[in-house]
Amino acid sequence: MEKKPKNIFISGPVPAAFVGDSIQKHSTKTDIGAHSIFLGQVRDDVIEDKKVMAIDYTTYEEMASETMNEIREAIFQKYQLTCMHVYHSLGRVKVGEISLFVFTSSKHRKAAIQACEETVERIKGELPVWGKEVFEDETYHWKENS
Amino acid sequence: MEKKPKNIFISGPVPAAFVGDSIQKHSTKTDIGAHSIFLGQVRDDVIEDKKVMAIDYTTYEEMASETMNEIREAIFQKYQLTCMHVYHSLGRVKVGEISLFVFTSSKHRKAAIQACEETVERIKGELPVWGKEVFEDETYHWKENS
Amino acid sequence: MPLTVSLFGQLSDITGSNIIEVENVIDTNSLINNIKERFPLIKDNKFAVAVDKKIIRENTLLTEQSLVALLPPFSGG
Amino acid sequence: MPLTVSLFGQLSDITGSNIIEVENVIDTNSLINNIKERFPLIKDNKFAVAVDKKIIRENTLLTEQSLVALLPPFSGG
Question: In chain D, what residues touch A129 (CB-CB under 8 Å)?
Answer without folding.
Answer: 74-77
